[in-house]
Design brief:
By secondary structure, this protein is mainly alpha-helical. Helix content is 89%, strand content 0%. It has four helices and no strands. Helix 2 packs parallel to helix 4. The longest helix is centred in the N-terminal third of the chain and has 28 residues. It is flat. The chain starts with a helix and ends with a helix. 22% of the residues are buried.
């Protein structure tokens, strides 16, 4: 049961990273450098959480609840720094930095929703 969930989530991460990379290439070809950079940021977030998920699975040793607890904890701990960075950028009217931090926060929100959907077996 847990193997199927792990496979679904790994497929999800791979698919999202691939989509971001494809968008990045298209945007670069259209000379839309800022948007291409944003896609790269998203791909990096997916990659980071794919790695965290892998660690959760290794440390959980087949215990579904242990994997869930570890992964959810990380989806809350790590973005707290991004929220702080977003607020600091807002304070200094740094629109680009705000955009980057918002992309990170939105992406981790999507990851968390997908994780909960797969892990609770609603998909």
């Amino acid at each position: 049961m847990i193997e199927q969930k792990v496979r679904k989530l790994n497929d999800y991460f791979d698919r999202q990273i691939s989509l971001c990379e494809q968008c990045n290439i298209k945007l670069l070809a259209d000379d839309r450098m800022d948007e291409a950079a944003f896609e790269k940021v998203k791909a990096n977030i997916y990659d980071v959480f794919r790695t965290i998920f892998s660690v959760a699975v290794q440390n959980g040793k087949g215990d579904s609840e242990a994997v869930k607890s570890f992964f959810i904890l990380k989806t809350e701990q790590i973005p707290s720094n991004w929220a702080t960075a977003y607020n600091k950028a807002k304070q200094y009217d740094d629109a680009v930095k705000m955009q980057i931090e918002q992309i990170k926060l939105d992406t981790v929100g999507e990851i968390k929703k997908m994780f909960e959907t797969v892990w609770e077996g609603e998909e």
